[in-house]
Amino acid sequence: MRFGDKRINNKAMVHQHHSEGSSGEVASLHLHPQSPGTPLQSVMEVELVQDKGIQGEPRYFGRVSRSSGQPSPRQVTLIEREQIAEHAAILGMASIPPGAVRSNIETVGINLIELLEREVEIGEAVLLLHTPRDPCAKMDAICQGLRELMLDNRQGVLARVVRSGKVKVGDRIIVRPPETGGSPHSTSSHPKVQPLR
Fold first, then answer.
1. How buried is 180 (Cβ within 10 angstroms: 0-12 exposed, 13-18 middle, 19+ buried)?
2. Is residue 192 part of a domain?
3. Which residues pair with residue 165 across a beta bridge?
4. Looking at the predicted structure, is the pLDDT value of residue 16 above 50?
5. How distant is the alpha carbon of residue 56 from its chain centre?
6. pLDDT tens per residue, range 39-88
7. What is the pLDDT of residues 119-170, one digit of tens each?
8. Strands 23-31 and 76-80
9. In sequence order, what are the beta bridge partners of 47?
10. CA angle at residue 131 from 126 to 132, to 5 degrees?
11. Which tens digit of pLDDT belongs to each residue from 75-119?
12. Is residue 182 part of a domain?
C-alpha cells in the first residue's frame, strides 16, 4: 500500500493564506554545508542577493546555468512546516527536526504550492516561487517512506531572489498581487520539478 493512501488533507492543515496581501511566517532558516549530505546549519537571519541566492550559502550561491549562462533558478528552497508535520504523522514519527528536510526556509501559515509563479515578500526581500521540488534518497535516511510521501508537490518549492534584503526567523511572508499581463519573472506554465540535494 502506498503511503499516500493514508494521507490527510493537506489543504485543511495549511491555512489558505494565498490571496493578495495575506501572510504566513518564517519558522526557521537553514544553510547547506560545504559537504553534500551533512546536516544543514540553523541560523536566525540570512541575506538574500538578487539573482544569486543566500549570501554565505556555500553550495548554491551565485550558481550559473551551464546551458543558458544565466543565473541558476535554484537560489532558495522553501517548505511548509504543516507539510512536514503531515509527513511525520503518516510515518508514525513525533516530529521531523527543523532543517532535516534540507530546505533553506521553513514556513507556517501559507500554502507555497498554490503560489507557484507568484512573488512573495519575506522580510526585506522578494522571492519568485517558481518550481516544485523533487525529493532525493536523502529523505529516506530520515525515515523510510518519506521520499515517496514527498512526491507530487509535497516537498516544497524553489524560488529566485528578485529583490535583495535580509530575512529573519519570525518575518511575515506576504503574497504580492499578480502583475497585469503575467509576471515577467515566470519561468513556465508547467515548471520542471527539481531534485533535493
1. exposed
2. no
3. 48
4. no
5. 18
6. 999 999 999 999 999 998 887 898 888 888 888 888 999 999 999 999 99
7. 999 999 999 999 998 888 789 888 898 888 888 888 899 999 999 999 999 9
8. unpaired
9. 166
10. 120
11. 999 999 999 999 999 999 999 999 999 999 999 999 999 999 999
12. no
| 78 contacts 103 by C-beta, under 8 angstroms | yes
- Name the maximum alpha-carbon separation found in the chain: 46
Domain tally for the chain?
Answer: 1
pLDDT tier at 22, thresholds 50, 70, 90: low
CATH code for the domain of 114: 2.40.33.20
Is 59 part of a structural domain of the chain?
Answer: yes
Domain containing 160 equals 3-177
AA letter at 4: G
User: Is residue 175 within 8 Å of 118, Cβ to Cβ?
Assistant: yes
Cell representation of residue 91: 510515518
With beta carbons less than 8 A apart as the criterion, state whether 43 and 31 touch: yes
Cell 546555468 locates to 65
